[in-house]
Amino acid sequence: MIQLNDNDxxxxxxxxxxxxxxxxxxxxxxxxxxxxxxxTYFKPTDRNGYIPVDSCHHRRWLESVPRSQFLRLRRNCxxxxxxxxxxxxxxxxxxxxxxxxxxxxxxxxxxSATDRASLLQVKPKVAKQESFKWSFFTxxxxxxxxxxxxxxxxxxxxxxxxxxxxxxxxxxxGTTIYVLENGEVQRPPTVNIFGxxxxxxxxxxxxxxxxxxxxxxxxxxxxxxxxxxxxxxGLYQNVASKKxxxxxxxxxxxxxxxxxxxxxxxxxxxCEAGFIGNGSVAFAEVTGESDCGVSKESYAMYINQGxxxxxxxLFKSGLYALIVLAIIWRRKVLSGSC
Length: 338
What we know:
This protein is an alpha+beta fold. Helices cover 35% and strands 22% of the residues. It folds into four domains: 2-120, no CATH class; 137-178, no CATH class; 190-287, Sandwich (Immunoglobulin-like), CATH 2.60.40.10; 302-338.
């Protein structure tokens, strides 16, 4: 050991040898009357490093810290006397960190009533039951251009995958098959159109309408914007359908308009929603508004006109001041010459 400690790295090794007790990890193990007894071992360098109660952690998490530490003592200590002795020491440390005395006492009383043998038992891991959803995809084939009846395809999928799925199945471009879960039926969406934020009228040259479809099942619904009977193409795709609850979904799509399009009472903006391949099943429609406010361009023009008027007033005031000074100076000159 002397040779090992003779190094220039500052490493000091120690060892212990005892026929009756030994320290192992956080345990002090003692032999008494041909049996082993345990209690928690605290190193000489151990300090009160428990987290203060006024830290920015979640309150419920902080309140569970004392109980978890007392459970550790209860599990480690063979003798009840050792548990109560070490609990008193631990209680002092928690009080120093600001924990409520009632909280610490309740934790001690609760843990004291716990059977130590139950804490030493290995709890079996319970496998979580997870539900899986399978998707079935194939390359396009002329043989699968039309699938009739749908029940035949469903039986084919169940035969090979042995699952029931609520996912949409694709057989090439343009062919969509839905396999509904047992007991579920197709439910149409509810469509609503939300107008623009009033701040857009001042800060932007473009105005947005948002179409929201909700309460539908299954999840694949397509939204389309139509202006005065003409579909508006080139828009962003639907926002991916989000699950509202266990049995319904929602999605949205934005329509961007110019000010001249939106502020026109003759324009009609229609949002249609429908399941892929089934056409429109629900819609909502709004009419353009009349422009009663001041546009951003007009507002800027008024500001510029105000600036010009202000500059002209300053110029006239300065010219008037010069004229007055000239008159005063002339009178002083004339009075001095007399």
